[in-house]
User: Fold these one by one.
Assistant:
Number 1:
Amino acid sequence: MIDVVLAVLQVLVVAAGAPLLVGALRTLKARLVGRRGPRVLQPYANLVKLLRKEVVVSTTTSWIFRVTPYVLFATMVVAALIVPLVLARPVLDFAGLVLLMYLFVLGTFFLALAGLDAGSAFGGMGSSREVAVAALAEPTIMVAILALALRAGTTNLGGIVERFTHEPLLAANPGHLLAFSALFIVMLAETGRLPVDNPATHLELTMIHEAMVLEYSGHYLALVEWASAMKLFLFMTLLANLFLPWGMPVTAAPGTIVLGLLVLAGKLAVLTVGLAVVETTVAKLRLFRVPELLAGSFALALLSVLSVFLLR
Amino acid sequence: MAGLLYIVAFVAGVAGAGLGVAGVLDATWSLRVEAAIPLGGLELTMDPLAGLFLALVGVSTAAASLCAIGSRDPAHDDAGAYLAFVAALGAVPLAANAMTFLIAWEIMSVASWMLVLDRRDDAETRRAAWVYAVMTHAGLACLLAGMLLLQVHTGSVRFADWSAAAPALPASVRGVAGLLLALGFAGKAGVIPLHVWLPLAHPAAPSHVSALMSGVMIKLGVYGLIRVGFEWLGPAPAAWGVVILLAGAVSALVGILDALVDHDLKRLLAFSSIENVGIILIGVGGAMLFRQAGLEALALLALVAALYHVVNHAMFKSLLFLGAGAVVHGVGTRNMEAMGGLIKRMPWTAGGFLLGCMAIAGLPPLNGFVSEWLTFQALLQNVRIEEPSLNLVFVLAIAALALTAGLGAACFVKAFGITFLALPRSEAAAHAHEAGLATRVGMVGLAVICVLLGLGPTVVVPVLGAVAGPVVGAAAPETWGDLATLSVSESFARLSTLAIAATLVLGLALPFVALVLAGVSRRRRLYETWGCGRMLQTARMEYTATAFADPFKRVFRFFYRPVKRLELDVHPASRLFVQRIAYTNPAASIFEDWLYRPVLTALRSLITLVQHLQSGSATAYLTYIFAALLVLLALR
């Protein structure tokens, strides 16, 4: 029973929290460059507006185009049950980092197919670029996972977080910091943030994610945007709980859950400010400079792993 | 008549699958007919490893034969060679002595060569068959030399005797025999750089034969490598493990990079077979290294991962080749740039092909994901080998495998998206026809097996553990988890694909139900794709396969060394009036340019030198004989 409650809670927190995170990020970024920016709650209003609108579907498309928003949303629901959120132990407690990364690939796979489905050049361009960036981020993710697994003795997400909550000093060594930087760069790439992709622009020749979803409208677009926000939320939560595991409650009880939510909100607030600062201080990279950035992140992850081998 | 032979092949496939499964479940037997062939006689032995490969041959044969019945073209029908090929495929894993093995191996090679030479009036096909014949016989020569060497030093042609005598063999004999056998088997498996025949031969064969060649024949090379590395020559030294691991990593990466930029649908699948053999060899090499370090439990896990991928790849690659065969049959070309929109004309094929693409891209909860996950879990535990240089090799293999997985997803987005989605790019694609009933049944069967292998690792892994246990000399672990959840190395990692599938279904239903309940309008307006205000959408505005692969070409330009040839034909009056533009980007292969061409050039100049001996005059030959006699007498 408690598991079902927790499952519902985790999905609700992710689904409801994601637009807030995106809204806060946009407002912060606007303030940092001296604009007033939209209100924090604007993404909710956008979702409601999109849900009310009629859907326009291209005659060229097939069923792939119509199921993709649902598949994308479903992968985020599963991911929401895998990532340790308020408690150290997630609902699907068997799950590990490798599974999480492959789940994100599942979403990208379908989204890229949907981008090709309408037969517009923009969609194909977005798809091609999105899968290229995602593929190049893969080695960093796996090597960073290795770095974490080496220190925690497991690739199980709940296991890693529990280990670090019990031994907080483990999470405070330089190798860990390197892995964090590596995964932070991967997050920028995977969720389409600056300097890899600019989520605020609709300039055809530079966009990646926005080009791929160009044909979506109405509730399809709402689902796609919502799922993208959830992906960002989940990545930030993952970074927060894997690398700053302090204060996470281990046992489930009403009190600890509230405490866990507050701790999570605090950590996400810190990371959001960090992300906003990063995004306002860097310029977008040319597409073919992105591999260099990802190679850099791979080097960081590799150093993190080597530090374990050499210092044991 | 030919149809009957295919039905015989189908029945034989089903029977072989049953026999193989029984063998996997430990129904071992052996058969010996002394008089059948010289030098040791015909000898077949069933053990779990042989059973596993026989079962794969059986299932793939059954599906491929169904498709052959469905899409037979009487003008190109070689049912006899097909039957011989299938029989030899089944006999290779069962062979228990060198002579039986080599005969079955050679029948397999020659029969498949005849099948590759399907359209013999086509120059490209003839070249493919020629390269295939040369490479496969170079491999056979290596196998023959290695086996003869072992026969000389152990005094037996039986594999079981080799295993028993291996520890007492001098290191040099083990090394040379191991190298020769490994070269022979790696050539058949399509390991880089011995792969050059594979992307030529597999697409040239009829699709049901391609399915068998990619699905099971190259796996028999892997089978040989496992036998050599773990049994015939005793436990392999660490250096072999490193070589196999790195060869696997390089094959995986190079295979998928080549697949990404290839727009011939069947050649793309052939390149991806090289990639998958690489993934399998990463597991095999890891198992060798773990075993050498005394970590039998981890060696078992790595080999189970490799065998799981062997099974999976046989299933989804057969499915993909049958799907590609249906597409080629329906459209009349293998060129992806002339396809598109087939999902509407060929819904069954599209569904099967999509499932195959998802499985091969390693998407959860399908079977490709499970075996890649297992491989990662084995590799991630390399820290238990306390040898930093080996750890570094493992880290590189992990990174290569991860990049391969990412590129694989991209490659199969291209393979499915360009072939089946958007508008048809040619007249033929616009009028393509769906595959016949038998072909569809074959594809659906394989697709169901892919799903089951994905959902049931808790059943499959213990069985594979029992197969791999005797090979690596490890006892099976006490538990692989319960029926719902797979547990690896106690609590190192766990996985429940059933739970993932269930949550995915719930996650699919959740927004759907929620939108209905919230009363969101599900009105849909059909309209054409937005096109910046142009009037009409045509297929020429679509993204092409070449364009899709372009970012990869730029990122990995050190590997592809892309060449662009742009020829402009301008009007004499002004170069601004372009009359004709020709754009080509010919592909070059590093291996052909840097490895094979120098070797062939050297060989050719050597032959030119030797040619002077062959004057054609009888007196010269008599002189040679006389000289040889004198030399022999002097030596005596």
Number 2:
Amino acid sequence: MKVNTMMRGVLIFLCIFFLSAPLFAAEVRLKLSTTTSTENSGLLYVLLPPFEKQFKVKVDVIAVGSGKAVKLGENGDADVVLVHERDLEDKFVAEGYGVNRRDVMHNDFVIIGPKADPAGIRKAKTGAEAFKLIAKNKFFFVSRGDKSGTHSKELSLWVKAQAKPAGGLYMESGSGMGEVLIMAYEKGAYTLTDRGTYLAFQKEGKINLPILFEGDPTLFNPYGIIAVNPARHPSVNYVMAMALIGWVTSQEGQRIIADFGKERYGAPLFYPDAIEGPR
Amino acid sequence: MASLLELRDITKSYNDTQVLAIPHLVIKQGAVYGIMGPNGAGKSTLLSILAFLVSPTSGDLRWEGMDVNTLNKDVLRRKVTLIHQNPYLFDTTVRKNIVYGLKGRRMPKEKRDEKLLECLKLVGLRGFEERRARELSGGEVQRVAIARALALDPQVLLLDEPTANVDRHGIEQLETILKELNERSQITIIVATHDVNQVHRLSDEVIYLFNGRITAKPPLENLFKGRIVKKDKDLFLFDTGRIVVALPRERDSVSRIAIPPEDIIVSHKPISTSARNSFAGAIAQVTDEGDLVSLIVDIGERLRVTITKRSFREMQLNLGSPVYVTFKSSSIETF
Amino acid sequence: MEYLWEGIKEAIRLIVSLDQEVCRTVLLSLRISLTATFFASFVGIPLGFLISTYEFTLKRPIITVFNTLLSIPTVVVGLFLYSLLSKRGPLGPLDLLFTPPAMVIGQFILAIPIITALTISAIQMVDPRVKWTAMTLGAGPVRTALTVLSEARFALTGAVIAGFGRVIAEVGTAMMVGGNIKGYTRVMTTAIALETSKGEFAFALSLGFILLMVAFSVNVLFHYFQGKRG
């Protein structure tokens, strides 16, 4: 009785053991914390592989909200941080958690909403003005509500507009950009979104909303990449972090950024900022 | 015959209540013993001590002359096996149950299978190897339990009320098996039971247990105090204060009488026999004891009477039924 | 409603075509959850057995604690483990954060209360005569314990399966300590969460169906290996 079940048990254990061995293999890994919208855009999966191949390293992309991405850097749980929120980035460096900040690229935000544009924001001259129109005329607005880069940009615009939708008109969803877009579409509401996610969703037919406002420099969304300060966290992979920074700001890296999205959406999603006129 | 187990001044108490007190008891090899007593007399406790499952509170227990405390309990437990009234069979096949004890000894497979077949044969369950334990009848369960115990070649086999949950046919079967076992392999058998007839059918020697103590004879029941009130030519009349009983001519002063429950006859109407003692009464209590039914009949005094279950059913008796009890004056014990 | 139907279709397509990404994710989910369940059983079953069998002063409160831990939200366990494994935390130097081993540890923590609590109740339901019977037949304490466990095997299987079910389906811990890194720590559940957040509902649903089928297969296999009862 005992022998047979025991043997089966041992067999199962061995299977599990060997199957899981690869889990515990050691490799050089670089931890990059970034935002969900950055990861969702798919840029990283084009930009990183050449780097990984050349430097024989695996980059672990940890995608969370901007706030958390920076926090991971502060804790030393990431080696390098790529976000698009200048205030947070500056604070990160000023407090000594990060070093060697470089501009990488920017994308921009656009305001989208129902086709009929009941609030009439098409006529607005600045982002803040568009926001004011939405608030004053009492229309629905969906917010990220999750301390992400998009959320911060949105909040700064409300401040500039000196107005904000009240109560149920302002829907804080606490979720990713994709979900917010769908929510806006379903509810006929306005929202602020990065162009990249918008283009992707529009192209795939998940939503059908027009861009109602764009182009205002206040809506530009610059990305910065920062290495975590090894003086603060000696165990971070500083050398490889610096290599990655070097890569994304190099001619080749910047070119990949400039080309990304052209084929799929007909327009680039990002505009490289590290080098003047890359080519 | 060699002495296997010897108990001296053994007592057992639970929470300051003493349940067993045995000054001296010897179990010899090859004999069949019956431990007889009403429920609560301490039979199960005694068996547990004899099986080395429970330690006595005080006293000296010896196995083959050696103090049990100096010996390995696990080894001893294999030499003396106890089969519970409701034996538990492991939730698996009959084979795996019987072979359980053997696996502990690292016996090679062929030997184990041999033993298995042997034991099944001894209890009359040939062919039952692959049956699932949970699918067996009460009698079959008892027999598998016995086979399981026998597989260990015990020197002593203890059985606690083995036929309590078995039908009449099964009882016969079991008793035959036990007798044959003893004859064939000289295994010492100790059976605890409350069935008087069974104990006499099976045992070479009977140990009577009453309130944790060994009594020389069956415990006295239907015991009454009183005094002789009339002396006739061949009869004395004994008055308990509530009933008057006819005694055969005896010693001059009798202060107590005892009437054996098995000698009392119960009937609906008074029966005309030579029995001098016949009383009307009503049934005050009914207790089921397997093949027998124990009644308390109130005739002024309360008498315990045992009748067969068959009779109980045939007479359609119940609590409160009015009955007549009759017994011969010669069956009364006097003190 | 169309999401559901789309989801089923997509699920079938992905399975039939043996989509590489999906296969990798499924394998990773299985490896992590099976390993965690295995170790949790290895610890939880003996632990439950001991708690159930022996009398000691804190017995009742401890059993209550285990039963309460059954309801602990996965994200809370994730947070707790994150704070331990972070570079800022005491176990930082072990470099475990955002790796599969961290997820195994997290799921181990999740599975243990279930397996232990269910083992305790399984053992308590075993007929008290088992112990006694084993002893009469000459079994020592270890063999007696194994026999009791064997008599409870049906319920114990349920305990392990319940543990596995809890961890294969959880997101909170895997997300917090794994980081949902594509190709490395992305498992079925975190992938579903991600696809949902991207609005890819049909794809998310298809992954969900696949997860259910995987769990079903594991259960079937488990019962097979367990054999017919005894």
